[in-house]
Amino acid sequence: MTTTTLNVKGMTCNHCVQAVEGALTELSGVERALVDLKANSVAVEYDESVVTVEQMTEAIEDQGYDVEA
Amino acid sequence: MTTTTLNVKGMTCNHCVQAVEGALTELSGVERALVDLKANSVAVEYDESVVTVEQMTEAIEDQGYDVEA
């Protein structure tokens, strides 16, 4: 299990928080996700043998948000 | 409920992660805490009518870690 923090653009309210956290935790291998709305970031705990940062990025972008490198 | 991300110095391993997350989630008003070990940060979801950033900082410092402003 490892953790990373992704920078996410476009989150404005609690619906955005739920969308991003939900998209991440639905992915196999993602254990926990916690959005910081003011910091425009999401901290993620995941199993790197199961899921990649690229897959997490895609899941967030599918919800309509941009992930910055 | 609101979220913040605190910068924590001195966390080196999963025992540190457990100590910091545990100290935070034991506080009344703290809903969730997720440490990013590589980023030296902890994202916290909390009820600002119940617990303050100062109290969270103290709880982390009591575990032997420094919180940077």
From TrEMBL, chains A, B:
Residues 2-68 form the HMA domain. Pfam families: HMA. Its main location: cytoplasm. PROSITE patterns: HMA_1, HMA_2. It is found in: Cytoplasm. CDD domains: HMA. It comes from the Bacteria. Keywords: Chaperone, Copper, Cytoplasm, Metal-binding. This is Copper chaperone CopZ.
